[in-house]
Amino acid sequence: MTARYENLIDGHDCPPAQGAYLDSENPWTTQVWAQIPRSTPEDIDRAVAAASAAFRNAAWAGISATKRAALMRRLGDLVEANAKELALAEVRDNGKTYTEMLRQMLNTAEWYRYYGGLCDKIEGRVIPVEAPGHFNYTLREPLGVIAMIIPWNSPVRLLAWKLAPALAAGNTCVIKPSEHASTSTLTFARLVREAGFPDGVVNVVCGLGAEIGPALTDHPDIAKVAFTGGVGSGTAVYVAAAKRMRPATLELGGKSPNIVFADADLDAAVQGVAGGIFASGGQSCVAGSRLLVADAIHDAFVARLADVARRIRMGDPMDAATHVGPVANRPQFEHIMKMISMARDEGATIACGGESVTGAQGGLFVQPTICTGVTADMRIAQEEVFGPVLSVLRFSTEEEAVALANSTRFGLGAGIWTTDVGRAHRMAARVRSGSVWVNTYRMTSQTSPFGGFDLSGVGREGGQAMIDAYLQTKSVWVNTTGVMAPAFPSL
Ligand code: NDP
């Protein structure tokens, strides 16, 4: 039975203006399990109008920060209470394991609670000014309607990174999920209504990025764009925002290094490197897709890693014994296989994996793959695969490790594996990357900023300061003397 989903506009389930729908395929069964709206710019216009009206409406604009905080906490509680349903929707859409998605949903609840706690701590300042008889202070105000564009790999979680601070600051929004994974966002949006947020504060419009993305990012009533996705569409979104002189936050891709020194705890490093690239089938922005390993331990370390890679269980994402589910969609599967073939052509050795596998119900898998003999100039060392493909590069000195780590145009995450505390801090300072993990990998938290250098993005998400990305500052000057000095004294 195919479920049909509708857009959420102004608190109502809204069929798309043109009446067209897209099939949503379950990547494990390869069966169509749902239909989502194939919206058009008309639907975007309706959603932006609803969000603009809600932004001005006293039901949202007029409520106290304390009340807003209560709504946020209630939303967090509802996400937690409905974590299983949300996780199931994610699994059906993107094929990641239920175990991982459930953990993600429970953490997502914390984002709404954390930013809920900041609602009533948004404060202006009284500024000492060199202007006798004048009083100056700042007001912190929400921006308006935020366009939120999210990818397919972890939609509900990545939405929370934007939506929680945006709502805490008092904004409204129009969300465009990926055509490949929209149902979890629609399921989540129902909880926003249930929590008691006024109609129109959160709107969701589904469809193809190419058909409705530009209508959203070019819309004159959008105050900011918050985007997570690839560099190509991120660039288009950034240009559109710039043309309207609007701010944009961009969380993009990566080619993150895991750097293993000879003095590392190798048991821990093997786990960290394997989890860093093979968990979620590598479909993670912070996938540690480059292993930089010291010459002295190269062969032994790669052998241990290959042993773990070969034992990873691929299968039904709902089965608790499965480590990795199918690739999320066919275009992504084809991209991964093309990248593996390109690595071979460039002269890399496939030390393990490298082949595709068809699951029991037709889903497409790629074996955990390790490419050795990779050099920094190869495309497999430079371009994001977004799949379970690890490129191994070797170094002999710390200096070389730094140079290799910084040899791509990305800068999202980096793992450093060493027992030398001084080296850990030296490396953390010299690696160009938004997050650095020492003897651990892939750690994130709502309380800590996350984002990228260079092609990995613009701006940060998470942490207290990030609420500022959804606020603007107004400077208010008050003449306290009651007297206005003549503009032109001699007149
Ligand atoms: P895409 O860039 O293809 O798509 C991201 C979103 O943008 C989708 O909703 C897409 O819609 C939409 N979109 C596409 N074209 C446009 C356009 N012209 N204007 C507006 N919106 C548009 O990325 P993927 O969905 O393939 O996600 C994978 C990428 O996301 C990887 O590069 C990954 O590294 C990155 N990512 C980054 C993270 C971070 O925090 N730094 C976290 C997770 C992923 P549609 O799908 O319908 O085409």
Q: Tell me, what's the shape?
A: globular
CATH architectural label of the largest domain: 3-Layer(aba) Sandwich
Name the helicity range: 25-40%
Enumerate the distinct ligands. Answer: NADPH dihydro-nicotinamide-adenine-dinucleotide phosphate
CATH superfamily of the largest domain: Aldehyde Dehydrogenase, Chain A, domain 1
Uncertain segments of ≥5 residues (pLDDT<50)?
none
CATH topology of the largest domain: Aldehyde Dehydrogenase, Chain A, domain 1
Class derived from helix and strand content: alpha/beta
- Put simply, the count of helices is 14
Task: Please state the average pLDDT score.
Answer: 97
Structure, explained:
- The protein has helices spanning 41-56, 58-61, 65-81, 83-94, 98-116, 155-168, 183-195, 209-217, 231-243, 266-278, 298-311, 330-346, 398-405, 421-430, and strands at residues 3-4, 7-9, 12-14, 21-25, 32-37, 126-127, 134-142, 145-149, 172-176, 202-204, 224-228, 248-251, 257-260, 290-294, 349-352, 356-358, 364-366, 369-372, 389-395, 413-417, 435-438, 450-451, 457-458, 460-461, 471-479.
- By secondary structure, it is of the alpha/beta class.
- It folds into two domains: 3-252 and 456-476, 3-Layer(aba) Sandwich (Aldehyde Dehydrogenase, Chain A, domain 1); 257-438, 3-Layer(aba) Sandwich (Aldehyde Dehydrogenase, Chain A, domain 2), CATH 3.40.309.10.
- A seven-stranded mixed sheet has the order 15-18-19-14-13-20-21, with helices on both faces.
- Strand 8, helix 6 and strand 9 (172-176) form a beta-alpha-beta unit.
- The protein binds NADPH dihydro-nicotinamide-adenine-dinucleotide phosphate (NDP).
- The site of NADPH dihydro-nicotinamide-adenine-dinucleotide phosphate has 33 residues, from helix 8 and helix 9.
